[in-house]
From TrEMBL:
<dbReference type="Pfam" id="PF06949">
    <property type="entry name" value="DUF1292"/>
</dbReference>
<comment type="similarity">
    <text>Belongs to the UPF0473 family.</text>
</comment>
<protein>
    <recommendedName>
        <fullName>UPF0473 protein WN59_00995</fullName>
    </recommendedName>
</protein>
<dbReference type="InterPro" id="IPR009711">
    <property type="entry name" value="UPF0473"/>
</dbReference>
Length: 101
């Protein structure tokens, strides 16, 4: 599957989600894409408080984006298969490795 056949959205936005204890956590959406082979939409998130100006690596959190019936909102599900993890790693490395100068 070539990267050209996939639809990418690299427009960043902030999302408020809830952790296991019910606390609000602010995340930045780093990348969103649809993968036709898996027939799923994926979103790559990073916790907003983890951004800094030095060269520390940012922990990326990939999720499956499942829209509700009217196409608005929905929910995020965890990535579960090794094939999906491998594909996401390749996409992230390809789409996000070129730092913007």
């Amino acid at each position: 599957m070539s990267q050209e056949e996939m639809d990418f959205n690299q427009e960043e936005e902030l999302l408020t989600l809830y952790d296991e204890e019910g606390n609000e956590v602010l995340y930045r959406k780093m990348l969103e894409f649809h993968h036709p082979e898996f027939e799923k939409d994926y979103v790559i998130l990073a916790e907003e408080g983890n951004f800094s100006n030095d060269d520390e690596e940012i922990e990326l959190i990939p999720m499956i984006n499942v829209a509700d019936e009217d196409g608005e909102g929905g929910k995020f599900l965890p990535v579960e298969t090794d094939d999906e993890w491998d594909m996401i790693e390749e996409v992230v490395n390809t789409q996000m490795d070129d730092p913007e100068e």
